[in-house]
Structures are given as structure tokens and as C-alpha cells.
Amino acid sequence: MHAARNLRLCTKDCVCLFICPTGATNTENGQIDFEKCLDGCRLCVDACSSGAIYLVSSTYPKPQPKEEGVVKAIFDLARSKAEQEDVARSISEASDDAALRQICSVFEQSSRIIGEDLWRESGYIIAQSEATRTLLKTMIKEHGNLEGFPLEEVEELLSRLS
Ligand code: SF4
Ligand code: SF4
């Protein structure tokens, strides 16, 4: 364990600077120095009246492998959300009805947010991860020749993530 500081809550009354036995709380950038933190002795946590300091684990277990069926179901749902987003946008762009455009706009945004959450749940939250690169390579292989597929953009993204 080690301590971390939420700068938004910190009122800079400096109590933690005096109480930390190693000086880990006294840094230029306001972040607690993990190298100096004594395995989360929590003196600073208890001393901070603002609740700005908390303990975090120094190591995390590896994510569990996902079942193929579960990933496929999440992918299918994410794809349907992307399609719903497209439909809502098309209706909105083609309509002169302000109320309908507003409803479609909300639906478009909510579909986008849910779709992004689903991709995250599928294990693609870190763009630089091997899983994301593999996904992009698979997309190019399986859909690269299809009309409308943004091949140039996906290749550019892949090169930047390497
Ligand atoms: S004791 Fe809490 S509020 Fe005070 S300087 Fe430290 S982190 Fe900030
Ligand atoms: S947990 Fe202990 S060693 Fe770590 S920063 Fe707080 S007071 Fe210092």
C-alpha cells in the first residue's frame, strides 16, 4: 500500500508534511512520493482533516481472461449501439422538427456513451494495450476492403499506438 493525495480536496494546511516520517508528502508537484512512502503507514491519512489522502494498493491482480461467449455478446451489443447512434444522427439531420432533433440528439449521445462503456468492459479501455492493437489488426484484415471502412484512419491509429 501507499498513500495518494486528491489535490482537489487538499486545503494546503500542511499537517501531512509535518507528520510524515519520510518526507514523502512534501513534493514539488503535490503528489505523494511513492518511493519514500513507508508501505502506507497511514499517519498522513489519519491526520488530514480534509480527507484528501487515501491509501491505494501498490499491486493489482491481472485481469481475468474473458469468456469468448461473453466478449462476443458485448461486441454485438456495442455494434448495435453504434448502429443506433447512426440511425439517431441520420433522423436528426433529416428532420426540421426541433423536438425530434433534440430527442434524437439525446439518443445519439446515450448510445455513444453506452457503446464506449461496453468497449471498456470488453477490455479495450487502454488504447495502447495489446488487446486494442489486435482488434485493430483484425478489423483491417476482415473489413479493410469494405466500402466505408476508414482504412487510412485505422492504419494511422495503429501506427501511433505501436
Ligand atoms: S493534511 Fe490534507 S489538506 Fe493538509 S496539506 Fe496534507 S493533504 Fe492537504
Ligand atoms: S502513509 Fe506514512 S510514509 Fe506514506 S506518505 Fe503517509 S505518512 Fe508518509
Secondary structure topology:
Blueprint: E1 2-5, H1 15-19, H2 43-47, E2 53-56, H3 68-94, H4 98-124, H5 130-143, H6 151-161
Antiparallel strand pairs: 1-2
Helix pairs in contact: 3-4, 5-6
Bound molecules: iron/sulfur cluster (SF4) (2 copies).
One iron/sulfur cluster is lined by residues 5, 10-16, 47-48, 50, 52-53.
Which terms summarize this structure?
single chain, 162 residues, mainly alpha, Alpha-Beta Plaits, 3 domains, two-stranded antiparallel ribbon, 6 helices, binds iron/sulfur cluster
Explain this structure to me?
With 162 residues, the chain is mainly α. The chain folds into 3 domains: 1-60, 2-Layer Sandwich (Alpha-Beta Plaits), CATH 3.30.70; 64-125; 126-162, no CATH class. Helix content is 55%, strand content 5%. The chain is built from 6 helices and 2 strands. It has helices at 15-19, 43-47, 68-94, 98-124, 130-143, 151-161; strands at residues 2-5, 53-56. Strands 1-2 form a two-stranded antiparallel ribbon. α3 (68-94) packs antiparallel against α4 and α5 (130-143) runs antiparallel to α6. The longest helix has 27 residues, at 68-94. The model has no long low-confidence stretch (mean pLDDT 90).
